[in-house]
Specification:
29% of the residues lie in helices and 23% in strands. It has a 5-stranded mixed sheet with strand order 7-6-10-8-9, covered by helices on one side. Strands 2-1-5 form a 3-stranded antiparallel sheet. The chain has a two-stranded antiparallel sheet with strand order 3-4. A hairpin with a 5-residue loop joins strand 6 and strand 7.
Length: 257
């Protein structure tokens, strides 16, 4: 019986160590329940770069004139933008030099401009051809990827100008049970380099981090807790201990019969 008690003791110890630490599963753990924190968030406006895709349309009182500058809309304009392929075909792609090629107007350099700055520049350029023109410019390739311990990993499209790390996690169905909220990484392309930013989702000051507001092309990776492999193997370990215990009982029964 001592051997059986030993196996039971070891098994209980393993179960205890398989439990996740509370600090790794709670958001904002250092925020006091009875207090309010206020942070000033000033997101850095995203600047257009090579490879980005823009939706551009020009409007004026003379629609017949602007038709020469705008790409023809299909009967069902939604079909022009309902897939990544259609967005690529119907949008204006910024080339490696930072230029877009507009019908009749020609090349316009939008490299490292914000969406508003690009709108103003395109509208000012179009005014050389059309009187009282209004330009509409939208970034339409805001896609991000979230991988690791989330319920629905994958690549998602965002249609808002601002997307927080928590909104991105929400799109992926929240973090999984084995996610380590203290060990999240954000991969961000800056020019020709990749910057890896560590994130701790359990700290309230995450809202002041440069990783709080996502940018197009960002990749979020959520690491698993260290004991995930052991937790996955608990059924196998339980079966092993159960088999050993049964074997010992049978041997003892045969011995003392």
């Amino acid at each position: 019986m001592k051997i059986i008690n030993f196996f039971i003791f070891v098994f209980l110890i393993l179960i205890i160590f398989s439990c996740s630490s509370r600090k790794k599963i709670i958001y904002f753990k250092n925020q006091k329940a009875d207090s309010t924190s206020t942070f000033n968030i000033q997101p850095t406006p995203y600047k257009i770069t090579a490879g980005d895709i823009l939706y551009i349309n020009l409007y004026s009182v003379n629609s017949q004139v602007t038709e020469y500058f705008n790409r023809k809309q299909s009967a069902n304009s939604y079909s022009m933008w309902n897939s990544e392929a259609n967005v690529y075909i119907n949008g204006y792609t910024v080339n490696d030099s930072g230029f877009i090629q507009l019908p009749i107007i020609g090349s316009v350099n939008v490299n490292q401009l914000t969406e508003k700055e690009a709108t103003d520049k395109i509208q000012h350029t179009a005014e050389n051809f059309i009187k009282s023109v209004t330009a509409i410019v939208k970034l339409i390739n805001f896609r991000f990827t979230i991988l690791g311990e989330v319920r629905r990993p994958g690549t998602y499209t965002n249609y808002n100008k601002t997307l927080t790390i928590f909104q991105a996690i929400g799109k992926a169905g929240d973090l999984g049970e084995d996610a380590d909220k203290t060990r999240v990484k954000l991969l961000r392309k800056i020019n020709d380099t990749i910057k890896i930013i560590p994130i701790n989702l359990t700290k309230v000051d995450i809202v002041t981090s440069e990783a709080y507001i996502l940018q197009p092309g960002d990749v979020v990776y959520v690491e698993p807790v260290k004991n995930k492999v052991f937790k996955q193997n608990i059924p196998l370990i339980s079966l092993f201990f159960s088999s050993v215990t049964t074997l010992i009982l049978v041997l003892n029964y045969i011995k003392y019969r």
